[in-house]
Write a structure and sequence with these properties.
single chain; alpha/beta; 5-stranded mixed β-sheet; 12 helices; 5 strands; 44% helix
Length: 364
């Protein structure tokens, strides 16, 4: 837009009335004096001429239009627009509280945590892995979630108070450190835990508050988000957590992470549970899980744990087919059928790379 020039109200002087300067003022002509005149006569003639000139000058001043005085009108200059101060530079976003590393299963397995380390699983970005230096820290963060989501004998519609949780753990002969060796929860279950705690105005433990901030950072409070969080303890967290045990826990929990994050895989597991296992075999799995403290009324929990134990837990310290009333051959057959039908991807490849072992001396 062109800049507006200031407007000036001053006007120039008016032109004189047309013909005003052409008027002739007549003065009676004096008689030509004689060559030799008296001084008095010359003075008289000069006086008459002077008077005529004076009269003409006065007449001109009176009769001629008087031009107006030349004035300079005040020039109205609009005020300069205020100079807007430049907007403040936006504050840099706060640095994330949690540094989340992307790592493979092997990299996570060999990592040595000194506190809490958060990994994003390289083969499936929907899985977060919490690697704890101590079982106590793991328990303080996740035991109340476990009590709400899957532990038998606990309410499914409210979060236990700290005192109620301590009583439940003690009644089962456990400590906060041994309540679970590994945890796995869907994003939906974690959102539910915090919603119920807020509704009941229950204070969070410091470790639970840390978990909430982590979930906020990764935006897991969005509705309908499908993702899975798992946890593992460090080697030496207690005498039972050897490197082999840590590897077994990690592989087992990663299969849960896949179940929570991939709806196609979860649907496949549901069908397999209902069509490939007999009713007696489903009953055997249910009894085993009940002995481990799981809530057997929760059907999804049953077939989720089925896939993790039967397909991805090969360490006899944690699972054998006899514990669900199967032979080793029957389990091998189920593993082969499971591999044939499961969706392709990293977990399919992991199962394909694990040999199916049938040993005549294997228990059950």
């Amino acid at each position: 837009m062109a800049e507006t020039q200031p407007h000036t109200d001053s006007a120039g002087p008016h032109s004189p009335e047309p013909g005003a300067d052409d008027r002739v003022w007549l003065v009676p002509a004096a008689k030509k004096p004689p060559l030799l005149t008296s001084r008095r006569a010359w003075l008289a003639g000069a006086g008459i001429l002077g008077t005529a000139c004076l009269l003409r000058g006065v007449s001109t001043l009176v009769l001629s239009p008087r031009p107006p005085p030349v004035t300079t009108a005040a020039v109205r200059v609009p005020p300069a627009p205020p100079v807007a101060a430049p907007p403040p530079a936006p504050a840099p976003p706060p640095a994330p509280e949690f540094a989340i590393r992307t790592a493979t299963e092997r990299e996570i397995l060999t990592h040595v945590p000194t506190g809490l380390t958060v990994f994003r699983f390289a083969d499936d970005q929907r899985i977060l892995v919490l690697d704890f230096a101590s079982l106590h820290q793991q328990g303080m963060m996740l035991n109340r979630v476990a009590a709400l989501i899957e532990k038998a004998g606990q309410p499914r519609n409210r979060v236990l108070s700290a005192a109620e949780l301590a009583q439940a753990i003690s009644a089962g002969g456990d400590t906060p450190a041994t309540y679970y060796y590994g945890h796995d929860y869907s994003a939906a279950s974690l959102r539910r835990f915090f919603t119920l705690a807020d509704d009941a105005h229950l204070p969070l433990d410091p470790e639970e508050a840390t978990l909430r901030r982590l979930l906020e950072q990764v935006d897991w409070f969005k509705p309908d988000l499908n993702a899975g969080l798992i946890s593992i303890p460090a080697v030496g967290a207690d005498a039972n957590v050897t490197l082999s045990a840590r590897g077994t826990i990690l592989h087992h929990e990663l299969s849960h992470g896949m179940f929570f994050g991939d709806l196609d895989y979860a649907t496949f597991v549901y069908r397999f549970w209902n069509t490939e296992l007999t009713a007696d075999e489903r009953g055997g799995v249910r009894r085993f899980l009940g002995s481990e403290g799981y809530d057997t009324r929760y059907e999804e929990l049953m077939y989720n744990e089925m896939q993790a134990y039967l397909m991805f837990t090969r360490d006899p310290e944690f699972f054998t087919p006899a514990r669900v009333g199967m032979t080793q051959q029957r389990l091998a057959d189920l593993q082969t059928e499971f591999l044939r039908g499961m969706p392709t991807g990293w977990l399919h490849d992991a199962l394909a790379a694990t040999p199916v072992v049938v040993s005549a001396s294997a228990p059950g």
